[in-house]
Design a protein that fits this description.
This protein is an alpha+beta fold. 12% of the residues lie in helices and 18% in strands. Strand 8 and strand 9 form a beta hairpin. The chain is globular, with a radius of gyration of 18 Å.
């Protein structure tokens, strides 16, 4: 049993100033196979704002130490897995997958779309080894994690990792969507879905590690693509979840996704916020969802 310590001052009414990343002393973390060891501890999970109905109440959570991929899984990494195991993804077995059509602002089930052809049968990932793998279902992500000797992170672990000690901030990097007028993640700027201005340097997916990491040294904790979590999703889970290492509900119909994506817009309820919750059926695959892996501390 991990003893709860007094609640951090940062959760109080008075907010401490957030130091720019370059001026903030990062935690000293070990690296292993592209993973970082996070020390764990007490943090404020969720939101106290009325608008965030499924992220309330804000509540104290204790997370034990664990390892997390510094960046999401890439096409190159997933290709090694497929080559060694001859694995067929959910989309490949179905023969189709969901692709967002920004010309009309809707999702279309597209025959021939899969992780090698994320936009359409004629699209390709050639030359995109360092891009996040997408068009992978929750089942595909679990299969990769098992092969790698890892697992998917829990929703609580992802929020703890995203916040990186900034319990009173909306984003992994601070309180504002931009820092000094500069985009900190890959998301949609402009009129959605008619025009993505690409002010962040990209339209659609970007390679990993294109923006500064957060204070834990983690990349792409917001934007670029949604990331599967281990948990089942339930709207009311925060009102009954355990205070230590919450694993998510015992059963459900949809799985949690976190982090927002390249389609996320800069509105007041932006999916890029660290408290934002999202979900999808575990068999669903899209061109805006990928994953990263975790590993329990050994």
């Amino acid at each position: 049993m991990i003893a709860l310590v007094p609640w951090p001052v940062a959760w109080g009414v008075q907010q401490a100033p957030v130091q720019p990343l370059a001026q903030t002393k990062r935690l000293s973390l070990e690296s292993r196979g592209g993973m970082l060891r996070l020390p764990g501890g007490l943090f404020a999970m969720g939101s106290s704002e009325q608008r965030d109905e499924d992220a309330r109440p804000a509540h104290p959570v204790v997370i034990g130490p664990f390892w997390l991929d510094a960046a999401p899984v890439t096409n190159k990494q997933f290709a090694v897995f497929v080559e060694e195991t001859q694995f067929f993804t959910s989309a490949e077995r179905r023969g189709e997958s969901l692709v967002f059509d920004d010309s009309v602002g809707t999702w279309r089930m597209t025959p021939g779309a899969d992780w090698r052809h994320p936009e359409a049968p004629e699209s390709s990932i050639l030359g995109k080894d360092n891009y996040l793998v997408v068009q992978v279902s929750w089942y595909d992500a679990v299969a990769f994690a098992d092969w790698a000797g890892k697992r998917l992170p829990t929703e609580a672990e992802i929020e703890y990792a995203s916040r990186a000690g900034l319990d009173d901030c909306d984003y992994p990097w601070g309180r504002s969507l931009e820092l000094h007028g500069t985009c900190q993640a890959n998301y949609w700027q402009g009129l959605f879905p008619q025009s993505d201005e690409g002010a962040d340097g990209f339209r659609g997916l970007s390679p990993v590690r294109q923006f500064l990491p957060n204070r834990f040294g983690l990349y792409d904790m917001a934007g670029n693509c949604w990331q599967w979590c281990a948990d089942w999703y339930a709207t009311d889970y925060y009102g009954r979840s355990p205070a230590e290492n919450p694993p998510g509900p015992a059963a459900g119909e949809v799985r949690v996704r976190r982090g927002g994506c390249w389609l996320s817009t800069a509105h007041a309820r932006s999916a890029l916020r660290v408290c934002h919750r999202n979900y999808a059926p575990p068999g669903e695959s899209t061109n805006h969802t990928g994953f990263r892996c975790a590993k329990s501390d050994q």
